Amino acid sequence: MTIFLLSLAGIPPLAGWFAKFAMFRSVIIAGGTMTVVLAAIAAVNSVIALYYYARVVKSVWLDDPIGEFAPDAEAAPAGSLRLALMVALLITVVVGFFPTIATYVGDASRVIASGG
Length: 116
Fold this sequence. Notes:
Largest sheet: none
Number of strands: 0
Shape: flat
Structural class: mainly alpha
Distance between the termini: 38 Å
Strand content: under 5%
Number of domains: 1
Number of helices: 5
Helix content: over 70%
């Protein structure tokens, strides 16, 4: 959960960082006054979002649990759920370190969608 929230916040070297970097880069390259204003608004929103994501991470790791939990609530997740989470985590980290993979997948998707 922590890795996914940090990725959403745009912390490098996770996949969310690459997405935010690509978006800011595109906006800056487009030039113009309105695009700079848009980039500034997006940057402020990113900082606000980081605050909220960091609060959730703090709650998960540092705060005491509220209430009582059933004994089976602490059991490990099912194998298929664990596999799905590991695959998602692996993709999040790999795309963060090697962002060109996402570009290749995007280009391949565009070719497949256009029929050729």
